[in-house]
Amino acid sequence: MDNDTFGEAAGKARPPRDAITADFGPSTPSPARTVQLVSGDLLLTVNPVDGSEIEACPPGQQPGRPARRSAAERVEHRRAAQPPVPPGPATPRPPLLERDEERERLVRLLGRGRSVRLTGPAGSGRSALLDAVAAECGDFAPDGVVRLNGHHRSPAELLQDLFTVVYDAPGHRPDRNALAGFVRDIGAIVVLDDLEFGGASLDELLDAAPECAFLVAATPDVAAPSADSHLEEVFLGGLGRAAALDLLQQTVERPLTEEEANWAGDLWFESEGLPLRFVQAAALLRQCDELRADPEAFEEFAPFAAAGGKDVPLPTLGEGAAPASLLASRLSDSARQTLRFAVALGGEVPHQAHLPALVGDTHADAALGELMRCGLLSPVGPRYRLAAGVLAQLCEKGYDEDAVGRAHTAAQHYTWWAGHPSVTPERAVAESDAVLAALSALVPGHEAGHASTAVLLARSAAPAFAAGRHWTAWERALRVGSEAARIAGEVAEEAYFHHELGVLALCTGNPERARAELEASIGMRGALADKNGTVAGRRALALVTDRESGVVAPVAPAVGAEPVSPPKGVPGLPLTKQLLRSGSPGSPSTAATAVGARQEPASDGPARPAGRRAALLGGARRNVVAAGAGALLAAVLGTVVTLGMTSDQEEPAGDNLRNGQPVNEDDVDDEWTFDDPAADTSADPAQDKDDAKKPTDPTTPGATRSSTGDPQQPGERPSSSSSRPGSPSGSEPATPPTRPTPTKSSPKPPNSPTPTPSVTETPPTSPSPTDTETAPSESDTAAAPSESTEASMTGEAPPAESASATVI
Predict the structure, then answer these.
(1) pLDDT in tens, 746-792
(2) Which helix (H) or strand (E) holds 343?
(3) Could you give the C-alpha distances from 687 to 673, 678, 725, 752, 805, in angstroms and in order?
(4) Closest C-alpha to 582, from 607, 600, 558
(5) Which of 276, 338, 427, 654 has the fewest CB atoms lying closer than 10 Å?
């Protein structure tokens, strides 16, 4: 899979080339390069020009289990993830003073497999302490020490980072389920700096890697861990007065004068002993030494000179506590311009390779070293940010003037850079925070042209973030780009962003959001007559439909029968209707399959509510019915399967069914309910005809007769009689039909005697009793909706009062 380079979109504007950027690429645009990633069972093809494509991963392209990195590979990976070394003289590393007790405690807890949360204010030296602890824990776990940074990172992204450090899996970004399995097997000391979340989110991170011991560092304003997280708490405060003065003296690399020592003592009280303030104070003292040694520099900074001679006074206590603006005023112009760009980008410092193009100075990359030596920058993962408190101090001195204009300049530069073929996705991901900061600064786009620039930057950077597997940055770029396209009125670009958001939602297992985004994209592209984009969107939407519908489980077949699956579109039909739809309703094979499918052992589970359609056969004697099913079906082949239904209102008889015509199952009313055999039985059509001819005695109250239970002679079918259940006494008799029909009929007269029906045909097998069933009225069905279904499902005998249907 190609995961090396990325192409720029066709027709994308470039900034003018100069001597700094002349060696970045060819004079003619290069063809776009696509990248393929496997996420779960999906194959994602990232195309920076036409939009991403997604499909089910074809057989043979699923990646194998990733291999663990060796110790040497982990060291190389960690070295590549560190921030670049600034050009110029090496910056002295501040010593770690008065931290031996905390360091030993942290090492001891991690050695026991305990997880620890180190809490300290910004500038207290948390990162330096983490470096010292990590150096002593390299042999504690099989997967060594893993260094992560939580700045702008969610728990899911941190787990992906953990997987990337331990496993070598190019072109593979596991989904949530697979990631959980990989991370669960990792055994490492995870050192996590700049954590930005706590509570349940922190519990989720810790629980996902139970074999890891975590050392997380956070500021006091971050939410505390939950009560049952079992995290050890270690608090880190400021240095003592003696240690603070010692740190200042070692950083200046000379003894302190008495005046400087007194000034440092006052600074210790004002800054609460934070080590960062004394690193910056040491930079102030070094600047004073340089000004005293260089007369030209002294003349340039004459306002800082004393009135009586060429002596540079010590900074005031306020300047020592907030030294950013004073330190910046004594740096080079390139360093000050770099600070202005960092302020415009919300504290993110561009990579040193971008500074010459942004500042307009061929030696502007050296500005990063100046800022580091002054303590104005802090490393954050593979990049640098303004140190704690520096952003606010610079804004107070006007460094945020024309911040939007500088963000626009940075956005134009990053638009060209992110789409250049020589820029790998990994490099784009390392610069993602600065790119997103420039992108966000241009929206809502109050200035003319800013929204269009944001659209171009999002179009250029979003595919690179996707290919680099930093999907949080991918989503942020898409959402800001979509808003910018809406503001700029660029419908085609807005449709592209909606398409990409749909693909991303599908990759992350959110089909509902994917459908909404893809349908919006398809609608916009259809209005623009974009056939290629519409086809791509419909392909992705079809995959969403498949994900939403899922796989329909096949129906369990009878012994020796072929598996039967419900037709597409009716996955919820009961077993009987599924089997009837799979064959001819009146064929013996279909009915035999239906009977055989019901031969299942009784269940002792809870009662199941009856649906609108219950099972056709069941009850206490269903085994007897199943035993004689073959002979019975052979005897009644060609007869009518009549289903009766009563209602409270009288309806005319239908003429759409004739004797001997098989019942079309699709024409059965949805409101009909089939119940198990019981004592209440319904007469056949011949009986209904005879009942209609009987005189009605209005003085005799209506009664319901049930089976007598008399013993039957061999060769005879059991006789039964019943009246329609639920018929009110004194109801008006219904008009007798001229021929038997399966349609709903009116209630029978209450005093109508019910003769025993005669049996005209007998199966040519050994005598076996069969059940006669009658369909209940709608009122009875509503009164007891679950009895018959429960009996058919569990094999228990239904109550004697339950209604039933007749099978002749």
Answers:
(1) 444 444 444 444 444 444 444 444 443 444 444 344 334 344 444 34
(2) helix 333-344
(3) 22, 18, 16, 12, 15
(4) 558
(5) 654
Dihedral (Cα; 438, 440, 445, 446), 10-degree rounding: -90
All structural domains of the chain, each given as residue ranges with its CATH number in brackets, are 100-235 (3.40.50.300), 575-692+720-808 (no CATH)
Global pTM value: 0.65
pLDDT confidence bin for 295, thresholds 50/70/90: low
- CA 615 to CA 598: how far, in whole Å? 9
Judged by phi (left if over 0) then psi (alpha if -120 to 50, else beta), residue 40 lies in left
Residues 77-90 pLDDT 10s: 888 888 888 887 77
- Predicted confidence (pLDDT) per residue in 584-595, tens digit: 333 333 333 333
Contact in structure between 656 and 786 (CB atoms under 8 Å)? no
Say how many C-beta atoms besides its own lie within 10 A of residue 668's C-beta.
Answer: 17
State the Cα–Cα distance between residues 241 and 384, nearest whole angstrom: 29
DSSP state letter for 172: B
CA-to-CA distance for 585 and 641, rounded, in angstroms? 10
Residue 662 has pLDDT above 80, yes or no: no
The C-alpha atoms of residue 394 and residue 325 are separated, in whole angstroms, by: 6
Band (125; pLDDT cuts 50, 70, 90): very high
Predicted pLDDT at 649: 42
Which bin fits 211, alpha (ψ -120 to 50), beta or left (φ > 0)? alpha
The residue type of 517 is E
Angle between helices 491-507 and 450-467 (to 10 degrees): 30
Closest CA to 9 of 413, 459, 417, 435: 459
